[in-house]
């Protein structure tokens, strides 16, 4: 093994110093800090002197910069890798990097849960390259949840290994949905040493055709899973089964790789990792990486939150500060984009809208323009929360609390990645949780991130993946997957009786009736997408099935890329939405109706004079109409009926039975009992993200004065996903704290009759 002369890499090294994926060079950091320091403090000073904002800053805090905790590069790291590190300006490792690398090279599965921009990529790249230099048959599989992350890592890894002699460089290749069939055939025939791919390709292309990929599977020494915190809820529950299927295939080929997992800071990294891969892991969660000085502002706007947001954004852009605005929904992202367009001028030219649902080429263009400085600002949903390379950002503006401590720090961490001074601004919306955070900023600044929840025992998910597993390799009653899990064995026998699985002629093995059941399993649980087309049948975007009913029904105003479209037709058979350009001053919001049936009760307990239960529910939800609201002021302009098919699914939930005496007392006082329990339902759903890593859209609710089964007044809160994803079970576990916090939010509000700051819900299908 040899090393090329350093002179060959002088130019490359210069570029590596500026590369956002590499550890920031001290000279570069000092330069950036000198540029941003005065501008950041100048911006804060200007905001404090603005009449509409000055008295509305409820928190101003400077978080001091933090120096690194460094350790020597261990002696077991090869000279070749040491040289590569030196060329990238790395003389020593951060403490968490050294700790994790030691665990991995000792043969242990490891999860690293540290903040954004803490150098996690070295934690997997160093062991993978080290093993390859020792054993050329060693293979690695890298999994990233987004295409943009795959492309970034491919570029960065190829650059990193370019310092090795050509004969010593592991071959790195990318496999995604855009990889041509001819290219895929070459990858199968001549497998790379490192294959970068995503969960969907593993599920749809590698596992079903494992024999074709045996060249890489047989020699697999490492499985790298990045952004592990995103594998929660329905996606995480599906991925837990994808990894169980992967284990079966790897056992078949005699491969026993180590897992290296990287996550944002969450409350339960060990539990999540173990649920995900079904193996014990060791966790590293104390970061040794440095951070620049961060200024934090919490703002309670006197004007509308959007107006305040646009003011801060425009002032930051005028000072040359690269800024990202995070919103809570696609619709709000597009509305902000429209308002920016209406303002015109420099702001319109410098800022773009970024969200899922845009065409891939649109997103790539925005990423590139942000990275190269063509754009100074972007308005985004959580789509830019992950570590996609968009260059060095100076400001992060949160238009509303993201719903979790983890997401808040992720979004704040997008600014200041080069260790320059940064500004993060939280602008509260008219939402109970937002104003609770304003009153209790320590929740964010000192609180523990939430637990990430998934449910591998979701019956629908178990069934889908057992069928996939049986199609890949026959299921044996003697294998651990069935033998050690009575629930799974019971489900397999049920599927056998229904003819989904069939027994082999020799007996003892279960086979899939279908040849390729993987194509019927959507890992994200959102169903097959609908195409959104214009009058020329040109596809302008996509939307998932659940959102299609609510956002692209006939008459809806669909927002895309800062433009408005009126929906002419929702074609359910063709899975197509026809739209035409629209110029108007209103948007639309769906109205829904729900029914809930209790299927099974798991457990119950007394709760502040009432009873709370946890169990299995059947939910029927139908979009019955929509309302038009003015863009300015969001005034209701009218309501219109719709006739759409219902969405019926089974899930898990909690329900609180209100004592009849309580109802009678309230009604005797001539108070609105139904309005009261509906308000409590909203407040509970609004507060749940403080305890469980979820979003309002992950949770549903319904309140009934008299439930047909129970003959009592009931408040239901349920997982908004068929089969359930564990959110309600966790809510039941912490129900005392959940209800107490709900009471604090309602009683702490200054209103008399209920308002958006306590019990109104922005997602209520009944118009609150």
Automatic annotation (TrEMBL):
SMART domains: DEXDc, HELICc. InterPro entries: DEAD/DEAH_box_helicase_dom, Helicase_ATP-bd, Helicase_C-like, HRQ1_WHD, MZB, P-loop_NTPase. Signal peptide: none annotated. Keywords: ATP-binding, Helicase, Hydrolase, Nucleotide-binding. One of its GO terms (molecular function) is nucleic acid binding. Residues 309-460 form the Helicase C-terminal domain. It comes from the Bacteria. Pfam families: DEAD (PF00270), Helicase_C (PF00271), MZB (PF09369), WHD_HRQ1 (PF22982). SUPFAM superfamilies: P-loop containing nucleoside triphosphate hydrolases. The keyword Hydrolase applies. One of its GO terms (biological process) is nucleotide-excision repair. This is DEAD/DEAH box helicase. The lineage of its organism: Bacteria, Pseudomonadati, Thermodesulfobacteriota, Dissulfuribacteria, Dissulfuribacterales. Residues 101-284 form the Helicase ATP-binding domain.
